[in-house]
Structures are given as structure tokens and as C-alpha cells.
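Marked as duplicate of an earlier ticket. Keeping the data here for the record.
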Amino acid sequence: MEQQYSSRSPAVKRLMQEAKELHSPTEMYHAHPVEDNLFEWHFTVRGAPDTAFAGGIYHGRITLPAEYPMKPPSIMLYTPNGRFAINTKICLSISGYHPESWQPSWSIRTALLAIIGFMPTPGNGAIGALDYTDEERQVLAKKSVDWRCQTCNACMKEILLPLTTTGDNNEASEAKELAKQIEFKDESANASAASAFNATAVGNDSSVNDASNVEQSIETTEQTQRAQRRPRVRRERRNTSNHANDTAAPFNYNIVLLNVLILFVAIALAYLIFRRIYMESTLDALNSTPIIDQISIQSASETELNDAGETRERDL
């Protein structure tokens, strides 16, 4: 893979280094480039303990720009989870939706821990966010371990290392602390994200008595979330279009004024040139009239003299 990319590229150097660091899976996450594409990675994360995602293993994709790490990656989940919409770019402060909040010191590992830390937080209608019930998320968590990626052919239960108490607590705590620093779109404050992370453990011990009813509820929730997202996306597109039009209007207006001014100056210059030519022609015509008259009189006089001379010669 190193032979396919320029070793002088900062992005290639950084990604090569991160690929070495993330080569071995841990208990909570794993990530690797897809085949020979250094800028497209697949990742796997484990659901945080003491939450509705406990026991779940989730798979997704990270697409990195050529300007990485100066610009953020795009993140997408493939495994149904009840928190993030699948096959849709999710909106985190570390994702491509918010390049203004991205920090070059963050890495792919930072993104993985952020996903783990934000999964128990409320979606609040953000782009790519879902708000399933804890029961629905628990059902999806149990199903996720048998899920297999069609691209990299990875089965979730075969990727991560088995859980141990020490590693589980350390990495889960790190993800929790990271969630306090990174805001999810439309969340009011970092503190609320941290408190939501702690509060999701309440009521998770309840069991699912009727699995079929829960699955139907999941489908209903998905339809509701889609219906709620469509108007929001339309409004955002209209607002973006209106803002672009408002910004472009003064620029076009100035161009029109400039063109009118140029046209006016060109017409004025043409008029002055035409007027000058016309005046010069008129003056030349007036000055040439007396000369013509003098020539005519002189010619007439010469004719008369010639006639008089011929008459005298005849008389003689």
C-alpha cells in the first residue's frame, strides 16, 4: 500500500501511522483500511457497558479527505443500532458536518471513542440521529453480534477481543470523558451529554417479553424518524438556497450598474466623435464655397477676353 501513495503527503504519513497503531483490535474498538484504499476505513465498536447498547457490536465506515488531518472525516454506521441511522453520514463535531470544530490532533481512534461515548445520548432530531427506546436498542444489540459486513466480510462476534473488567472500564471511561468535550449537533451543552450518558443505565434491567412486538415497534420508529427528517432536510436546503441567493444579489446588482455605466460612456464618446466629424465637414464646406465662386468668375472673365480677341481679329 505504501507504494501506491506519496510518502511526502502529510495525510499518507498520518494514516500510515494510525494504521500501525490500530492494527491490533482491542476489547472496545478496531479499525483498518479497506483493501488498498488508505482513505476509506471500516471500524467496529462495542456498545458502552451499563447502557442499552451493552453487548452490542457495531460496524461502520470512515471516509477521510485528502487534507486529513487538517479536515475531518465522514462517519457512517452500517449495523442497525437505534441511535444512528444506517448508511447515513452522522453529524458529530468530529465529522465532516462541522469542519470548524475539528482539531488536527484528533484521530480515527478519537472518532471511535466519540461514537461509543455518544451512543447513549439523546439524538434531539440531529442529522442521522435516532431515538429508539431502550428495549428496541437492546433487541438490536443482541442481533448485532451476528451481523456480517458485505464489503469486508467481517462478522461482529469475531472481530473484537473478549471483554475483561479492567480494559472494559478503562476504555469506556475514556469514551465517556471524550463525550464531555465533543458536542453533538443540536445538544445544548457538553454537561448535558455527560449526564445523559450516566442516566441511560436506569431501567436497562427490564426484559423484553414479546420480541415480535418490539420488532414492529422498531419499524414504526424508523418510519417516524424518516418522516421527521425529511421536512428538516428540506428546510435546511431552502435556507441554504435563500442564503446563497441573498449573498449573490448585491454582487449581480453591482455588475449590472457597471455594465450600464460602461454602455453610457461608450454612447457619449461615440456621440462626441460623430459631432466633431460633422462639424469639421460643415466648416470645410463653408470655407470651400468662396474659392469655387472666384474660380468661376475668373473662368468667365477669361472666356470673355478670348471672345473679344477673336472678334477683333475678324474685323482686321
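See parent ticket for discussion. The beta strands are 29-34, 37-46, 57-63, 74-77.
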